[in-house]
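Let us work through a complete example step by step.
Step 1: write down the sequence.
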Amino acid sequence: MTDLQVQYWDVFPKSIKVSHGSLNMMVPLSVRGNPRGRVIFDSSNWAIATVSEDGIVSLGYNVGATVISAYDSEDRTSVRYVQVEVISVAEAVSIA
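Step 2: predict the structure and record it as tokens.
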């Protein structure tokens, strides 16, 4: 019988939604489980949200959406995603 080793890992929160104008809003991402190596973070749109090498997301500067990708190692074989949305203040207000 062979030794199977499960490499489960994930990143939380899975989504972040804030209103525009929340300047200097920072949200730390939490890595759980056992990634293969040092987790590498990247943003698909740095104008909407930036992410540090430690997984701190900075957002609220511009309205729009982006995805933060978290890779389990330098070779980027496994990836997890965090959806980020910055909405206008008008969108955040609803009248029923």
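Step 3: interpret the result. The chain has one domain: 9-90.
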